[in-house]
Amino acid sequence: MDRERAYLVATPFKKRAKKSLKMSDFVFALSLDLKWGPPDKVRALLQEAADEGLVRIDGDYVHATFDDDQAEVPVGFRPSKEVDLFERGVRLIVSATGMGRKEVISMVNERQDSLQGLVNLDTVALLVAREMGIDVRDLALEAYQNLVDEGLQDQK
User: Fold this and answer.
1) Where in the chain is the domain with CATH 1.10.10?
2) What is the DSSP string of 49-89?
3) 3-64: which CATH number, 3.40.50, 1.25.40, 1.10.1660, 1.10.10?
4) Among 66-75, 97-106, 107-116, which is the least confidently predicted range?
5) Across-strand partners of 62?
6) What does the pLDDT look like over 66-96, one tens digit per residue?
7) Which candidate, 38, 71, 97, 115, has a CA 20 to 30 Å from the CA of 128?
């Protein structure tokens, strides 16, 4: 289990001292109240947490399934800002399609295998997203810049 994800998910429950929250309240708490990310990313995080078994989503409600000691949020906790391109691509697909994180990663891995490993995993995640009709322009520009930067470093 990813400790940071557990802390992120536990925070809205801990702040309100409840084991169940409306999904909108959960998203509001992380996105607007704490400013830890846009609502679509919070929803993707929520889906990942459900896939991991940290929460159970039941209609419009989110129920905490973690033990209190399992997700004791440290005082002053703030999420890290650094998320790699692959992870952002996976989250984009999860939030746009509602698919589970494991299913998306499996699709990306299968697609990379079909490309015989000639394309890096970051790019394959964006390719899969694009094939699903998801707008990846911003991430594609970043991937391109990373590729150019790697090429320049290789020339040194």
Assistant:
1) 3-64
2) HHHHTSEEEETTEEEE-S-TTTT-PPTT----S---HHHHH
3) 1.10.10
4) 66-75
5) 21, 57
6) 876 666 777 877 777 656 788 889 889 998 9
7) 38
